[in-house]
Design brief:
The chain is α+β, with helices and mostly antiparallel strands. Strand 20 and strand 21 form a beta hairpin. Helix 4 packs antiparallel against helix 5, helix 5 packs parallel to helix 19 and helix 20 packs parallel to helix 23. The longest helix is centred in the first third of the chain and has 43 residues. It starts with a helix and ends in a 7-residue tail after the last helix.
Length: 890
């Protein structure tokens, strides 16, 4: 007998007894009574514990989604740190120990966050990850012991404290000048630098993250001229306090030059003329001058320069230097840029301040100083200067006419020229390469050094500006440099599923996409070129570790570079030539020797620290997720943990909808012309509909990936309803399976389809009869976060036909750049690290694919259909099935 009193309480009071007790009551009622009762309760809405369970599951989905987004952000941040550490190891600038420690701590925090997020969305399925992280982080802490995590100054650093190792803090220009003053002991004006920390504080004050400055408006565009960056008062006070210290030291308020010293300026890329310098600035205008120099980072010219060289927006430290009352100024080249082989020093001189020289308004006096066997004046060529730039009493500078009798008069004596040349040679020897040096001479005939940067010579010029090498067909010019260099060999086109044992020694790997699985080839490959892939990805880090020239994201390399032809890859200029380009290879050999010499010179405590901690951060040992070695226990570095977590997070989110149950009570049906019942579960900002909307329209969907997926599914060229053509054998195989399985008894056979969505995420789960499919995707602005994962399995026909359909779909996805795997009638596929626009386009293609192959397993009557269907879909022939007779012959 059923406990009538208890049931009455449930019906009339709407209360929920203990679930176990309630189930026991229903079990005792008998199967038929219980089934009818539960259906009735579900219909009238009194089965309230199920509603509570649905709300709990929805809350769980939302929590997992938040954790997943945090994981993706942390992974993106970690890869950025990996890239910065690698660049520091390869670069010429000396890293500061505080910077090294800061980067390692950033990396450790990011990986720790990833581990916590993964265990949150997997119900703590990976407990050993925390143990491996703790072991690695303890070892890192030991190696960083005793290293201060603070810079010498937060916002302002006096020039007397600056050395080359502070380039990360004050920029290359001021770091070089500090090294000249404090490392070599040569004369520079007194001054100070406002650091990257100050710049980042300003950026944060404007609502941007320090690494998100690409979204700031270009200076002069989309903003009124009277508007500009607001400088926080604390930074203003730091600048004014530093100026007051200068005044106290000099005994009088000085005029200063306010100069850009952007990160990356005066290093591998000169940024010559792209940023602002303001001369003869008085105290009242210091803050305004600082603001203008910072804003010049986002000038149209500077943005264009970065785009040409594929550079990210940097930070803008700013230098403040006391103005010399210059009677003469100019530039010294420690070599002749047009004749690198000549042993000379070139001195260019103008009267007054230097702007007339650098902006080309006047022709300077040119003096050649021979270097062999010792410094001596070689040749003087007079200037015919007609005007002179001088400081004005109220600030700024102006042009004044120069009397004709002074126009061609020498500005420096021979001894002054030789003194300047000796300083220049000392600077060149200290920095280890030819230098471009700015200088000035004051009224007391004292020389002041204002700037030094690597000289752009014919043999050392910025590669992006060099014309192609003549005499060799240019096959490709595109892509992003993961590791700079030149490599030559025969082309071997291969994806990560290929037989890597067949890759030729010294070959050039050409692949559709980057993959860390290619680490097996990096000891053999002369170079790597891919259609797709990011320079902050896992494989890019491996190419830097193994020093393999790599050119990624060329978009079309696999079509343009044919297997077997001999090519030369120059990743610095993003070019691939046909044939062996001896000139490039010889220059690369010389460059490698020079780099090795520089590496030996880098045996400083800071570089030893960088190399020591990098051993526990950068190497990637887990490269193949299908390998038995791809495990928690085998994580040896932070990079291993990040790679493992990133891969497993896809799996966890992917399976989120597999055991979803009936969630119609907490979701909204989508009113869409498709042969499915589709319910939407909004995890956050994926739907924009008026309050109380019960049935959603397609126009209410704002989730970027779901919008793209639906656009493909609703393609008017593909039939959405009605049966697909099949032969008799296909029909009989469906009938046989139906008779054996009796699927109507299974709840999942009748479940609706669900899409869990947010603004940039979708997990679309479809159970349609015998078919099961999942599309899990992220589509946003951050390339490193974007991916599409697909599972498609099952079908109503026999196994052979289901297997053929899976292979046909895999062939199509292979064509579009997916990594695929077919096991029986199950297909899995992945595409990652594409732009937002391309990810959206691929999702639209996937939507078409889902509709095109609906019920098509039964029509795969013979093996020839695998390729025919693939070709039809790629060609856009979506009416293929309607006009193709199906034969029953095997």
């Amino acid at each position: 007998m059923v406990n009538a009193q208890c049931l009455t309480g449930v019906f009339l009071m709407g209360t929920v007894p203990d679930i176990g007790h309630f189930k026991e009551i229903i079990r005792r009622a008998g199967r038929r009574v219980a089934q009818g009762l539960l259906k009735f309760l579900d219909l009238v809405g009194l089965y309230s514990y199920q509603r509570v369970d649905q709300e709990a599951q929805l809350s769980r989905f939302r929590s997992h989604h938040i954790e997943f987004r945090g994981l993706l952000t942390a992974n993106n941040d970690f890869l950025t740190v990996v890239n910065e550490l690698e660049e520091s190891r390869m670069g010429d600038a000396l890293p500061h120990p505080a910077w090294v420690k800061k980067q390692v701590l950033r990396a450790a925090v990011d990986v720790h966050r990833m581990v916590k997020c993964l265990n949150a969305i997997s119900d703590n399925r990976y407990p050993k990850l925390a143990e491996r992280y703790q072991t690695i982080s303890d070892e890192l802490a030991g190696r960083l012991e005793g290293v201060s995590s603070s810079a010498p100054s937060s916002w302002v650093l006096d020039l007397a404290e600056i050395r080359a190792e502070h380039a990360w803090l004050v920029g290359g220009k001021m770091a070089n000048l500090g090294e000249i003053r404090n490392g070599i002991g040569l004369p520079t004006p007194p001054g100070f630098a406002v650091t990257t920390e100050a710049y980042q504080s300003i950026i944060r004050a404007h609502g941007f993250l320090p690494d998100d400055t690409a979204n700031l408006p270009v200076s002069g565009e989309d903003q009124p001229k009277e508007e500009g960056m607001t400088i926080p008062e604390t930074i203003e006070m730091s600048i004014l306090d530093a100026y007051d210290r200068l005044t106290q030291t000099l005994g009088t308020p000085p005029a200063v030059a306010v100069r850009s010293s952007a990160i990356g300026e005066d290093t591998a890329y000169s940024f010559t003329g792209q940023f602002l310098t303001l001369l003869n600035v008085r105290k009242d205008n210091l803050i305004e001058a600082y603001r203008k120099v910072v804003e010049s980072l986002f000038s149209a010219e500077a943005v264009h320069y970065r785009q040409l060289h594929k550079l990210a927006a940097s930070a803008m430290p700013v230098g403040f230097l006391v103005m010399a009352d210059a009677v003469a100024s100019g530039v010294v080249y420690t070599a002749d840029p047009s004749r690198p082989e000549a042993r000379v020093v070139l001195v260019h001189v103008v009267k007054g301040l230097g702007p007339s020289l650098v902006d080309g308004r006047t022709s300077p006096e040119t003096i050649t100083v021979e270097r062999d066997p010792e410094l001596r004046i070689g040749h003087r060529r007079a200037s015919f200067q007609t005007s002179i730039v001088v400081s004005t009493p109220d600030g700024g500078v102006r042009d004044e006419p120069l009397p004709q009798e002074l126009a061609s008069a020498p500005s420096l004596s021979d001894e002054e020229v030789l003194s300047l040349a000796r300083m220049a040679v000392d600077i060149e020897e200290h920095f280890g390469s030819p230098q471009d040096i700015e200088w000035a001479m004051d009224a007391e005939r004292r020389l002041w050094l204002l700037q030094s940067r690597p000289l752009r010579m014919a043999a050392f010029s910025e590669e992006g500006s060099l014309p192609p090498v003549q005499g060799y067909p240019l096959l490709l010019e595109a892509g992003d440099t993961a590791f700079p260099g030149v490599g030559s060999g025969p082309v071997a086109v291969m994806d990560e599923e290929g037989d890597m044992d067949r890759f030729p020694e010294g070959g050039v790997l050409v692949a559709p996409r980057s993959s860390p699985r290619f680490v097996r080839l990096m000891a053999k490959a002369a170079a790597i070129v891919t259609d797709f892939g990011g320079v902050t990805g896992h494989m890019a880090a491996l190419t830097r570790e193994f020093h393999v020239p790599a050119l990624l994201n060329t978009r079309n390399a696999t079509n343009l570079l044919k297997p077997g032809i001999h090519v030369t890859v120059d990743t610095r200029t993003h070019r691939v030539y046909e044939g062996r380009v001896a000139e490039l290879l010889e220059a690369e050999t010389q460059r490698v020797r020079e780099d090795e010499r520089l590496r030996q010179d880098k045996a400083t405590p800071a570089f030893r620290l960088l190399n020591s901690v990098s051993e526990l951060v950068l190497p990637l040992n887990l490269v193949d997720p299908r390998s038995t070695d791809f495990s928690q226990e085998n994580c040896k570095t932070l990079h291993d943990i990040a790679r493992f977590v990133h891969e497993k997070s896809y799996e966890e989110m992917f399976r989120m909808g597999e055991h979803m149950g009936d969630l119609r009570g907490v979701s909204s049906p989508l009113d869409v012309f498709l042969p499915i019942d589709l319910y939407i579960i909004d995890l956050g900002d994926g739907i924009d509909a008026p309050a109380g909307t019960r049935r959603l329209k397609v126009a209410h969907v704002v989730s970027a990936p779901l919008k793209s997926l639906l656009a493909g599914m609703l393609d008017k060229r593909i039939a959405r309803f009605g049966p697909r053509p099949m032969d008799l054998r296909g029909f009989m195989s469906i009938m046989a399976r139906h008779a054996v399985t009796n699927p109507e008894e299974e709840r999942t056979f009748r479940d609706p389809c669900y899409a869990l969505v947010s603004d940039e995420y979708v997990n679309y789960t479809a159970r349609v009869g015998y078919h099961f499919g999942v599309v899990d995707a992220y589509c946003g602005e951050a390339i490193n976060k974007n991916y599409i994962s697909i599972l498609f399995r099952g079908g109503a026909a026999d196994f052979t036909r289901r297997y053929r359909r899976a292979r046909a779909i895999a062939g199509i996805l292979d064509h579009y750049g997916f990594s695929t795997n077919v096991r029986g009638d199950a297909l899995t596929a992945r595409l990652s690290k594409r732009s937002q626009q391309e990810t959206a386009s691929q999702l639209e293609m996937v939507g078409r694919l889902l509709q095109f192959f609906r019920q098509m397993d039964a029509a795969m009557a013979s093996e020839e259909f695998v390729n025919r269907v693939r070709e039809a879909f790629i060609a856009g022939d979506f009416a293929f099935w309607e006009k193709t007779p199906v034969s029953s012959k095997e």
